[in-house]
Amino acid sequence: MTSQVEQAKDAAALRAVREHVYDGCRLGVGSGSTVVYAVKHLAELVTTAGLNVTCVPTSFQARQLIIEHGLHLSDLSQTPELDVVIDGADECDPQLNLIKGGGGCQLQEKIVAACGKKMVVIADYRKKSQELGEQWKKGIPIEVVPMAYVPVMNKLRSYGLEPVLRMAQSKAGPVVTDNSNFVVDAKFTASHNWELLETKLCRTPGVVETGLFVGFASVAYFGMKDGSVSVLHKPPV
């Protein structure tokens, strides 16, 4: 099972890197387990083809991957405009609406995605759904200012969501993001107008950012069980 999933991640990452990275590319590098494969293939491509690629990370993890593979590291203060952003997702529907933030990096991921001309999603077959919430059951990750987590959770309940403060696994207390904030996972049982929900969440005082990515992705690559890669393009407006 694990081997099949990892092979699917690798296949999706390889296809995306080959089709979207080019010489002179200013690349946003996402976070998560599938991005590990993308950076590996990116480093191989840069070495074999002699490409000049500038990499902007979305998290501490992404930054370390870029450094470990000897790639050209930059940031948004030096490279504020990106040609392509390659990132993973916890779930993706046919309209390329995404839930991200399972790793707690949604704020920086969304900032970097907004700086890109094109966002390319890479994932394995488990992340492909007909409706958000079909596969991903942990809710929408919401980054919250620590002092406001209780009133924010109360607001989320009034929106019909079921908020849970995410607790750390290897330390006492809650998860703390790269930005020193908390993460509240807002579970839901019904479908929503995701754009309207995202707007409502972001207008809630104390909410820094949400893991709902609506209108960001241009194309998604899903590694499948049989070794193939399924490609899903953003529907025309």
Topology, element by element:
Elements: H1 2-20, E1 26-29, H2 33-49, E2 54-57, H3 60-68, E3 72-73, E4 84-87, E5 91-92, E6 98-99, H4 106-114, E7 119-124, E8 140-144, H5 149-158, E9 162-165, E10 182-187, H6 194-202, E11 207-210, E12 212-213, E13 217-223, E14 229-233
Parallel strand pairs: 1-2, 1-4, 2-3, 4-7, 7-13
Antiparallel strand pairs: 5-6, 6-12, 8-10, 8-11, 9-10, 13-14
Explain what you see:
Helix content is 31%, strand content 24%. By secondary structure, the protein is α/β, with parallel strands linked by helices. The chain has a 7-stranded mixed beta sheet with strand order 3-2-1-4-7-13-14, sandwiched between helices. Strand 1, helix 2 and strand 2 (54-57) form a beta-alpha-beta unit. The N and C termini lie far apart (38 Å).
Our estimate of the beta-strand percent is: 15-25%
Derived structural class: alpha/beta
List unreliable stretches of 5+ residues: none
Mean pLDDT: 96
Task: Give the CA-CA distance, first to last residue.
Answer: 38 Å
Question: What is the H/E order?
Answer: HEHEHEEEEHEEHEEHEEEE
Strand order of the largest sheet: 3-2-1-4-7-13-14
Features:
single chain; 237 residues; alpha/beta; 7-stranded mixed β-sheet; 24% strand; globular
What's the short version?
With 237 residues, the protein is of the alpha/beta class. Helix content is 31%, strand content 24%.
